Amino acid sequence: MRITPDEVRRIAALARIQLDDAEVQKMAADMDAILGHFETLGKLPLDDVEPTAQSVALDLPMRDDERERGLAVEDALRPAPESRDGHFVVPKVL
Amino acid sequence: MELCELSAAEIADGVRARKFSTSEVVGSFLACVEKADPGLGAMLHVSVGHIKTQARRVDAKVYGRDDPGPLAGVPIGIKDVFATRGLPTTCGSKILEGWVPSYDATVVRRLRLAGGVVAGKTNCDEFAMGSSTENSAYKPCRNPWDKSRVPGGSSGGSAAGVAARYFPGALGTDTGGSIRQPAALCGVMGLKPTYGRCSRYGLVAYASSLDHPGPFARNAQDLALLLQAMAGYDPRDSTSAPRAVPGYRRAVQLQRERALGRGLWGDVYASSEAAAAGAGNGTGAGEAAADGAGSAAARPLRIGVPKEYFATGQAGVDAAVAAAVRAAIDTLGADGAEVTEVSLPHTDYALAVYYILAPAECSSNLARFDGIRYGLRVKGPDLLATYAATRRAGFGAEVRRRIMLGTYVLSAGYYDAFYRRAQKARTLIRRDFEQAFGKVDVLVTPTSPVTAFKLGERTTDPVSMYLADVYTMAADLAGVPGLSVPCGFDAAGLPVGMQLMGPHFGEMDLLRVAARYEALTDWHTRRPPA
Amino acid sequence: MAYAEAAGVSAALENPRAGEASAAWEPVIGLEVHAQLRTRTKIFCGCSAAYGAPPNRHVCPVCLGHPGVLPVLNRKVVELAMRAALAMGCEVHAASRFARKNYFYPDLPKGYQISQYDAPLATGGGLDVGPLETARRVRLVRIHLEEDAGKIIHDGAWSLVDFNRAGVPLIEIVSEPDIRTAEDASEYLKELRLLLRSLGVCDGNMEEGSLRCDANVSVRRRGEEKLGTRAELKNLNSFKYVKDAIEHEVQRQVALLESGERVVQETRQYDPGTGRTAPMRSKEEAHDYRYFPDPDLPPLRVDAQWIEAVRVSLRETPRARRTRYVKTLGLSDYDAAVLVSEEGLGEFFEAVLKVHDDAKSAANFLMSEMLKELKEVGGDIDRCRTAPREVGALLEMVRKGEIARATAKDVFVKMFREGVGAAEYVKARGLGQVSDYDALRTLSGSLVAQNADKAAEYHGGKEKLFGFFMGLVMKATGGKASPELAKKALQDALDEKKPPTP
Questions:
Q1: CA-closest candidate to residue C214, choices C229, C231, C227, C200
Q2: Who's near C139: CB < 8 A, 6+ residues apart?
């Protein structure tokens, strides 16, 4: 398994994490080393094995369609870095 | 002796009997933290106002007509990944600096309802990612037994705080070993319950299918007391188990006096009807199990020793650790337990499975930290740049690494090779445990291959850090409960932990074995140097 | 909306192949429709799902994606989705699963949307569209549950985000690429909207975004089996936009292919102003949603009993009702389509029939008078203050000649708006027709006598003067005379005065 710096850049873009060139190199090396440990999995015969998403089998509970008290608008906006006129504010969306 | 050094049971009894007040207890805690924490770094947020308000509320109940609850006046450290209403919750991360939740995590709410006092937020690896608490964005936490060493992680602050006698109990989370490993390294008890036993609502998710909230304490009874208050179905967590909670506390008390040679083990309380009968009041099935020595169904406890956990070699177990755990197993055997060697053949795959699944879930769980609704924002020239700059500045190196890894294994073309294969291998690991628990009641292993290591010793090589959790990850993947019990010290005087693992919802047997073991030994009473 | 739909039905009947591209090229169209479910609360939290509140009033830690919160599924969401699925003949799966669709956007609080991916709630099924005689089947791929995102308002260098809509429950209904004309795409959407409204699953309000449509459009040479490269047209939020956008897109693709160029697989936005589609500004990187099962939500299980309970609670679909009106009541397909197109109108019509069993007459009256009134007040049939049995009684009075048809229309307006009783109102206002032959005969006799010159001209062969005399009769009776009876009485009076033939 070899992770190229370009692959790291592609993943960083997907994950919305800014990395400078040195960090890209370091990340590629780290990911390479970690992925190396995953190769053992390739040898396991897994074709007939069901995947486990949840370790304890549970059914999905459901709630009734009933209102619950939410947050007042000022409480919703208070932790926001920027807000205006009852809205959260972000730099212009492309 | 300071009031905060008492056990949880002693504090609750004293407060309820009006021997001392909750205000006095928290006063003692605050004094202790003020004195010791600058050198330890176990606490991230302690609010004098917040803690005193809670203390007054408990005391009002004690002197009024309301039942103050089984944890009356007990200060409890809360790992900073649990939402606490009115108290900062940062997950040890810069990206959440200053965030004060509008709600309490369910387990925190339940501890408060039981009379417990949220003492403060404990230090941890950022978003619970790490095994040494060195990944805290605020400060490292140190091991009370040797300040040049780590307390383990990620719940290092909770373990260190309990070991340093700040409080008798604390909350942690265990995703790959983050309760049991620091408990072992700090010489305290830590319980990772079955997946679904304790609600995850309000626990800031790292890896949702692997995150387990659980308690730390210095003895089995306090551990049971805390679990009793925390456990149970929560309609706000769709993965919490709709099962009654057995009476842990009384069963643990009884087991202290009974040998492991004859008793009711395993499925006595596993059936939900029996458990329901004993729910809430500390009696019933749990008690019957511990008290069943005269029953026809009584038999010795069956202990399995998985050989894979005693392998030596580069990533294998340290000799001193192996020796201490072997000695502990002999103690249990001498008390009447049947000891057999078993095999968990897929143990070696746990690391790979864990480091695919946990980062994958993490990459998605941490996507909400985008600098829009709360938390840090670093402005860039446009939206994309703002996202990327915020997440670069807000997340530390290890968190970024796991987000990258998780994004990679889920991305187009790699999902089947990594994520899906890991999910399948997870099934094999789960089956290993099912098969083992067909033959034995409890598995006993070292909790960690090594005792506490030096700060900085493993920070440069991520994989060496990951290997610190190599004995604890499998229980998280399988969702089975695990409990770390102090079982000795190495030559340097550092604590060694023994891990007990049981089948799903088998916390009771683990607590009973821990209770009996602590009655036979005194490791858990040792104190770190002042 | 009923009137627009009725008009649409009419257009389709008149020109079922409108929008066809050309003889050489065949359009291939599949629609993805998002329908907001009619629940009180959001899909995963207890916040109101109502439209139109001021920004960020229907929010809580869960739908704002605060750290630590978890989703809990609203049972009603599953029930409504099952209703839609069963009404369209889909297979509802005993186990389905929620997945996370990961992408960053300011309106998406968690950085992922909870949706269903590889294990949707329902698959298969379909919808018939167009006239009954020439119905076209549009098969469905799947129906799945998901949460809506918030809303972004662009404001100069900034964007403002409102999360009221975040977490509102949606079903996505994905069709097979079975649609061959833009007109049929629009018809499919109308039929779907009608069905979802009648099931109480979705209010169908396209202006408010309760029903949204994307279209996958490609073209291929007729006879070719292989599908061409498709473009995805986003946010076609009216029947007209659906039709116009697809028509334009088909023309664009045909023109490209005929000039030897290629169609690019991309997402395009329709601009109703220019009537053209244009590529949406491409995102910085290709989509890679990294779907995986949501670990916060175990598999959704619906047992056979629940599915059956929903199935038996289903009402007759509008399409089935339309078929019944044609087959058993003898209505035209057009009339039947109009009657089922307005929520509650079909039921009203059938209740009228219990009193007045002339289906054609009842249908005509409701289609003209009821729809006119509904349009006037701009509401649905709940605004009608009279009961079907009263309307039936009114139509019976017309049939028996007790009141004139014109009078009935006026009386209906009063009934609709004020809830007056038909018989009481006619009686109180003296609107009953003069239906006494003898009285009309006497009146006609005196009118003929007073206009003897005109009568003579009539008898001299100027037969259109009959109308002149009818006018006099109606004027004298204040329009209440039964036209049939008046005609006979006048004829008899004129005949009596007729000079003997030499």
A1: C231
A2: C124, C125, C126, C175, C176, C178
CA distance B523 to B176: 25
Cα distance between residue C163 and residue C158, in whole Å: 16
What is the C-alpha separation between C288 and C304, in angstroms, rounded?
Answer: 36
Q: What is the DSSP string of C119-143?
A: S-SEE--EEEES-STT-EEEEEEEE
The dihedral region occupied by C233, where left means phi > 0, alpha psi between -120 and 50, and beta the remainder, is: beta
* Full DSSP string of C236-285: --SHHHHHHHHHHHHHHHHHHHHTT--PPPEEEEEETTTTEEEEPPPPSS
The structure tokens listed for C133 are 């005689």
Chains in contact with A, where contact means 3 or more Cβ–Cβ distances below 8 Å, are B, C
Q: Which one of A64, A65, A67 would you mutate to disrupt binding with C, by most C Cβ within 10 Å of its Cβ? A: A65
pLDDT tens string, chain C, 502 residues long: the values are 343 344 344 444 444 444 445 779 999 999 999 999 999 999 999 999 999 999 999 999 999 999 999 999 999 999 999 999 999 999 999 999 999 999 999 999 999 999 999 999 999 999 999 999 999 999 999 999 999 999 999 988 899 999 999 999 999 999 999 999 999 999 999 999 999 999 999 999 999 999 999 999 999 999 999 999 999 999 898 999 999 999 999 999 999 999 999 999 999 999 888 888 888 865 545 679 999 999 999 999 999 999 999 999 999 999 999 999 999 999 999 999 999 998 889 999 999 999 999 999 999 999 999 999 999 888 788 889 999 999 999 999 888 777 878 888 999 999 999 999 988 888 887 777 676 777 788 888 888 989 989 888 998 888 898 999 999 888 887 777 778 888 888 899 888 888 876 5
Q: Where are the beta strands (DSSP E) in C354-484?
A: none
State whether residue C319 sits within 8 Å of chain B by CB.
no
A6 touching B (Cβ < 8 Å): no
Residue B132 annotated as catalytic: no
**What does DSSP say about strands C300-301 and C95-96: parallel, antiparallel, or unpaired?**
antiparallel
User: Which residues in C256-274 are b (16+ Cβ under 10 Å) and which e?
Assistant: ebeeeeebeeebbbbeeee
> CB count, 10 Å around CB of C88?
22
d(CA B23, nearest CA chain C) in Å: 30
Q: In what order do the strands lie in the sheet with B442-446?
A: B43-45, B117-122, B75-79, B169-174, B212-217, B189-192, B482-489, B495-501, B442-446, B302-306, B338-342
In eight-state DSSP terms, residue B77 is E
Measure CA C267 to chain center: 28
Instruction: Give the pairing of strands B117-122 and B75-79.
Output: parallel
* Cβ atoms of B90 and B370 closer than 8 Å: no
Question: Looking only at Cα atoms, what is the longest distance across chain C?
Answer: 110
For residue C421 the two structure tokens come to: 């009783």
How far, rounded to the nearest angstrom, does the alpha carbon of residue B485 sit from its chain's CA centroid?
12
- pTM here is 0.91
Tokens of B447: 């909790």
- CA C259 vs. chain centroid, Å, equals 40
Q: Measure CB to CB from residue A16 to each of C39, C61, C104 and give the nearest one.
A: C104
Burial A42-56 (b: 16+ CB within 10 A, else e): eebebeebeebbbbb
Instruction: Report the candidate in B503, B351, B423 with the shortest Cα–Cα distance to residue A39.
Output: B351
| DSSP three-state, residue B44 | strand
Q: Token digits for A52?
A: 């486990």
Residues of C in contact with B105 (CB under 8 A): 68
Can B79 be counted among the known catalytic residues? yes
Spatial separation of the C-alpha atoms in residues B515 and B278, rounded to whole Å = 19
Q: How far apart are CA B525 and CA B28, in angstroms?
A: 20
Tokens 């840090």 locate to B376
Record: contact A52-B400, CB cut-off 8 A: no
